[in-house]
Design goal:
The complex is a heterodimer of chains A (74) and B (376). Chain A is α+β, with helices and mostly antiparallel strands and 74 residues long. In chain A, a hairpin with a 2-residue loop joins strand 3 and strand 4. The mean pLDDT of chain A is 90. Chain B is mainly α and 376 residues long. In chain B, strands 1-2 form a two-stranded antiparallel ribbon.
């Protein structure tokens, strides 16, 4: 499904775990790159988006059925 | 005509996007917080107990009392605000396609966390919302409680950094997500008709004390629903406010609690409900050590369960069955707290309150340490 450098499956995890996992994945990128994060609640979607935008990343969100795929670009 | 229809659809979609942006912005949280703060102070004016316009812990404790799960005669009433919280969140979740029935993330642990969260909150005499409302009413003991709350959440944050996790939830039947809302509907029916099931039995209703003080049912229910709706949209959470500040330096949720305290303070001043000091505060004691420790236990339990007691009700309204288990844990914990002399009174901590707080802290630390996933 992916061309990105890292994939985080945060489906079913409650806050703040999706945020922690996403930020760790972003941190692990050396230089620029992308991380894909899969979540299944709107709360997680918004929290992850805000948390990585706060550290200067860009986020693109795609709704896939009942899940959300966030593509984070550093 | 077809062109007009398309334009109308696009305008509607744009409006929807703007609304969504508003809800997830700090302004959304501030407006939810203002609503809570103003109406909490007003509910007190309309009949609820002092500095207790809204208190999730106290109100669930009153519900436990009305059902006879404890027999403390002064705190027994089926509080419609609690039911309203769940209904409001349920309506918002359905309206915005966010009703997601889910369960399975260590439910029994969530029950235990709910239980001890209530034990701690009843040693302090209030949930985090009431701590803010007590502060806004001039009760300086609330400062001690809020410091304890922050300390407990801080311990929880350390566990989160070490990989603490209760595991994933799983999608389930819509009916599962409806269980707690249905329980709340039953409680509302009981609150409206107040039947007597046996002679000298439930439904119990206080004739004196905090349980005998309440705003009219319809008003309490309506305010509760309004709060539930706004809180579901904005994810208002007192525990999250402190957690996010400590864990990721994000003040987003903190705006909500600043708004609650600020709005309640101004409304209290306007209504003459402000009284500064430590002593003689309504439904409060001034034992600093156990105010701090009680709220520390509550804060740790909320942090490990992923939400303050209000937020657990809102998540239960969104279909989260595990949050529903936490709520039931709190109600059962309230029963035990009063039956076993663990709950405080205005005279000070109950005889078994301090021991219960220590046991609770040990249990929560054990949960935090033993339930970890490897984090690379």
């Amino acid at each position: 499904m992916t061309m990105s450098d890292q994939v985080v499956d945060a489906r079913g995890l409650s806050c703040p775990q999706p945020v922690i996992l996403s930020r760790q994945a972003v941190k692990k990128l050396e230089g620029a790159g992308t991380v894909e994060v899969l979540v299944d609640t709107a709360t997680s979607r918004d929290n992850v988006k805000r948390a990585v935008e706060n550290v200067g990343c860009q986020v693109e969100i795609r709704e896939e059925g009942e899940e959300f795929l966030l593509t984070i670009t550093k | 005509m077809e062109g007009e229809e398309t334009i109308r659809k696009i305008t509607m979609r744009e409006k929807g996007r703007t609304m969504k942006k508003f809800w997830s912005s700090p302004w959304g949280l501030v407006s939810a917080g203002l609503f809570v703060g103003v109406f909490a102070a007003l509910l007190q004016k309309w009949g609820n107990p002092g500095n207790m316009g809204i208190c999730v812990a106290c109100f669930e404790r009153d519900i436990a009392g009305a059902l006879g799960l404890h027999r403390a005669a002064v705190v027994q009433y089926l509080r419609p605000e609690i039911m309203g919280f769940v209904f409001g969140a349920l309506i918002a979740a359905y309206a915005f396609r966010e009703f997601k029935p889910r369960v399975g993330s260590a439910p029994i642990v969530r029950f235990v966390l709910g239980f001890f969260a209530m034990v701690g909150a009843l040693v302090f005499l209030g949930c985090p919302w009431r701590a803010l409302l007590r502060l806004a009413g001039g009760d300086l003991n609330a400062v001690v409680g809020i410091l304890g709350l922050a300390a407990g959440i801080g311990v929880g944050v350390v566990f989160m950094r070490l990989g603490y996790s209760l595991g994933r939830t799983y999608k389930t039947y819509a009916a599962v997500g409806w269980v707690l809302p249905l329980i709340m509907i039953v409680l509302l029916v009981l609150a409206i008709f107040q039947p007597k099931f046996t002679e000298n039995g439930p439904i119990f209703l206080s004739v004196e004390g905090p349980g005998s003080m309440y705003a009219p049912l319809a008003i309490s229910l309506a305010v509760g629903m309004g709060i539930g709706f706004l809180a579901q949209r904005t994810r208002l959470c007192t525990m999250g406010a402190f957690r996010d500040l400590m864990l990721i330096r994000d003040p987003h949720l903190f705006w909500g609690i600043v708004a609650i305290a600020g709005a309640a303070l101004l409304t209290n001043l306007a209504l003459g409900q402000f009284n500064l000091g430590f002593v003689g505060q309504p439904v409060a004691h001034d034992n600093h050590l156990w105010n701090f420790a009680g709220m520390m236990l509550a804060g740790l339990a909320f942090a490990l369960a992923g939400g303050c007691p209000g937020r657990q009700l809102f998540m239960a309204g969104e279909g989260d069955g595990d949050a529903g288990i936490f709520v039931i844990g709190m109600i059962v914990g309230a029963g035990f707290s009063h039956n076993f002399g663990m709950a405080s009174s205005p005279a000070g901590p109950g005889p078994w309150g301090p021991v219960a707080v220590i046991v609770g802290l040990v249990v929560c630390v054990a949960i935090g340490l033993t339930m970890r996933q490897r984090m690379d």
